[in-house]
What we know:
TIM Barrel, cytoplasm, 8 strands
Amino acid sequence: xxxxxxxxxxxxxxxxxxxxxxxxxxxxxxxxxxxxxxxxxxxxxxxxxxxxxxxxxxxxxxxxxxxxxxxxxxxxxxxxxxxxxxxxxxxxxxxxxxxxxxxxxxxxxxxxxxxxxxxxxxxxxxxxxxxxxxxxxxxxxxxxxxxxxxxxxxxxxxxxxxxxxxxxxxxxxxxxxxxxxxxxxxxxxxxxxxxxxxxxxxxxxxxxxxxxxxxxxxxxxxxxxxxxxxxxxxxxxxxxxxxxxxxxxxxxxxxxxxx
Length: 259
């Protein structure tokens, strides 16, 4: 189960450092995270990455980046996946709706970035989601096509992804998408992925996600939090929800009983 947060461009440098220290304290207060069954991740903006790596060193938190280029060389203003690896980054966000809309990143660009990230040893956190509320099966088909395009139908590459299902209409909204809707979309998506042996691919939900949502979801592998987790205590609250769910799922398994 993955629980993560992106700061986008909401925080300055000093604010980011203070927040990262608070977040590290929230994680350290939960030693069960060391088991690795619940994986916290943090995605600050590029200038914060070296100091973020220092603050998070020795913790179970995975450091992420908000974007990457698709190659080294003469690409002014871009950041290569290989440089991110040098900085201690483990996963990289690709294909967010804001980048698709405002930076005109189409499926071809997303596919280039996914391939470059995988080749550098990074885990792509692939953002996908429909533009408007639809029948869950229709939304799942749209999302599946986005995944297929991102890996160019290379399903071995798809196995390296973490999928962030973020309905575009829910990003920045006052409330997240309804839990029943999200669960149904993810269930249909898993059926489509199962045709390629990927029914168990991590699919996390993002889009105004906040404390209280995770326990209501079915078949979802975690949450990708936004502004609600800019209060580190809220991040800790969601970690607690994830740990409780993991414990509830693990107990029948430990006793040899069906979940």
